[in-house]
Design goal:
There is one protein chain. With 257 residues, the protein is mainly α. It is built from nine helices and two strands. It has a two-stranded antiparallel sheet.
């Protein structure tokens, strides 16, 4: 195993940078949650709807963990900026540390909280986009632009936090593990619908596919949703999501559900 050199960046720069990344992550999760909520309200098939509900709930949980991580990071930064980089103990009569009163400052424990919450945020995103056997086409980002910001922002935050806390091997190792998981998630989420194939699909081709092949229709409809969202066309997005619901409903009927 290669040993990585510990070169922590100044708290003033590193922790501020990590906070900026987490703020961007938190803000951009809203679009994906909103899209899934809308899709959930328009989905009828029981199994398909349960998948969308699970995705929606996982995104919400990821958002909560990002928020908790930011709160803990703010505590670390605040205590450091006030000159307290580790817990301060009360003193006994002889000037020794007195451990029977709660120490002042929790920045050391807060470091573990930051890393733990970031790891949980990544785990919830993995859960959100876990493909199912019956509806693998659903395991794709509804708002690719925003979700790219989410995943890249988490990667950057983990990079900074891992460097900042690298004197602790456990924390540095957990950051590295979370980054590895994120890399695999990004490849899966954004390669589920190849960009070239998406751009070759026209509305007419998708309509023909819906009539002839329910399996192809669901994939085509999902691709059209991605294109509409990526192009920032609200009207086309609504139309495409309606077509996706219709295509997946036909697929349920085709499979006898």
């Amino acid at each position: 195993m290669t040993t990585q050199q510990c070169t922590p960046v100044p708290a003033e720069d590193g922790l501020r940078s990590a906070m900026a990344e987490l703020t961007a992550v938190f803000e951009n999760l809203g679009a994906e949650h909103e899209a899934l909520m809308l899709e959930q309200s328009r989905t009828c098939g029981r199994e398909r709807r349960s998948t969308v509900v699970r995705m929606d709930e996982a995104i919400a949980s990821a958002s909560d963990r990002v928020r908790f991580a930011a709160d803990s990071l703010a505590l670390v930064y605040g205590m450091r900026s006030l000159g307290i980089s580790s817990p301060r103990f009360s003193k006994g009569a002889e000037g020794h540390d007195y451990p029977f009163l709660t120490p002042l400052g929790g920045s050391t424990d807060a470091r573990f909280d930051v890393v733990e919450y970031l790891g949980e945020a990544v785990a919830h995103l993995v859960k959100a986009y876990e493909p199912t056997r019956d509806h693998p086409a659903l395991a794709v980002a509804r708002c690719p632009g925003q979700m790219k910001v989410v995943l890249s922002g988490l990667q950057s935050a983990l990079d900074v936090v891992g460097a900042e806390f690298c004197e602790d091997e456990v924390l540095a190792g957990e950051c590295a593990s979370a980054r590895t998981v994120l890399a695999g998630l990004e490849e899966r989420v954004f390669s589920a619908v190849p960009a070239q194939a998406v751009r070759q699909l026209s509305v007419e081709e998708m309509s023909a596919a819906i009539e002839s092949d329910p399996e192809l229709a669901s994939a085509a409809a999902a691709a059209l949703v991605v294109v509409a969202v990526r192009d920032g066309d609200p009207e086309m997005t609504v139309t495409a999501q309606a077509r996706l619901s219709d295509a997946l409903a036909r697929l349920d009927v085709h499979r006898g559900r």
